[in-house]
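Project standup — Tuesday

K.O.: blocked on the structure for the chain from last sprint. Re-posting the sequence here as requested.
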Amino acid sequence: MALIEVRLRPTGPWRTGDATGDRERTSAIYRSDALYSAVTHAMSALGWLEEWLDATARAAGEPAVRFSSLFPFQGETRLGPPPRTHWPASGAARSQLQNARFVPLEFARGAAFDESQWAVEGSSGAMLPAGASTPFTIGLRSFAAIDRLSGASEPHRAACIEFAPGAGWWGLAEIGGEPWEYRVKSAFRLLADSGFGAGRSKGWGRAAEPEFRPADDMAAPQNSGAWWLLSLFSPHETDAVDWSRGDYAAETRGGWVESVAGSARKKQARFLTEGSVLAAPSLRGRAVDVAPEGFPHPVYRSGFALALPVALETEA
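H.V.: unblocked you, prediction finished:
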C-alpha cells in the first residue's frame, strides 16, 4: 500500500457543508466520507464504478483505497486536528494553544517547537507562526431563487470557505497499487475541473491541477499500538480496539442522497471523528450502507480508517 499526499489549490469558493445542515455555516474540513462519495461519482463518470465498489465498499478484505479528510495547508505547513490524548504537550503552552482547532502536522506528532513563536489565529483556529495571516476565511454569499411561472424570488444565503493565496486543502490517500493509483489520480483531476462539495452549479469547489507527493515516511511506526485518526471511522467487526485507552469522540452523520434513482434523506450513522486516538494493533473500518428504506441501490458512507501511528499520553 502506497501512502500519497494530495494537495488541492482552490480557484474559487468551496462549500463543504455543516453537521447542523445550516446553509449559513460551513466546515473547514472536507470530511473523508464526503471525499469518498465525490470520488465514487467520478469513478462512475469514468466507467469504473462497479470495480471501484468491489475494491472498496464491497471488499471482503482490506479496501484497496482509503482517504483521510482534507485539511487546510498554508505554504508548506500542513495543518490537522491535534491528537486528543496529548495536545498541547507542555503545560506552558496549554493556556495559549489548547484550543487550537488545527496544528502543524509535525508538532501534532511530537516535534519540538518554540511556543513563543506560535499562536492560534482567531478566525480559523489554526496554530500559525505569530503574526501570520489566516489561511482561509468563511464568507456568506446571497442568492435568489426565481419562480419561473410567477417571477417571485426567494432570497437565501449560503456560507463558503475561501482560501488565501498559497493555501488550500491537503489530505492522504492509501492506495493498493495499480490500477487504483492511476484511477484515483484521474478521479481527483476530474473533480478539480468539475467541482467538489456543494455549489458546483455556481462554479464552487474547483481547484487547479492536483499535486501528488509520496508520503510513506508519515507511516513510520512508533511501536505504541496507538493510532491518530485523520478520517472518520466506523469500526469493523475485526478491529480489536481497546476502548479503555486512548481518547476519542463520535459524531452522527446524515444528509441527502442525490442519485438518478431520486433524492432522499440518508439514514443517520455514528462515526469516530478526526483527532481521535485509538489503541489497537491496526485499524480497518468499514463502509456503512445508509440508503433510505426502499431505495433501489445501496448508498455507502465510508468509515475506513486512515490513521497515523502516535504515542499514547502515558508514553509521550
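K.O.: great, moving the ticket to review. Residues 2-315 form one domain. The mean pLDDT is 89.
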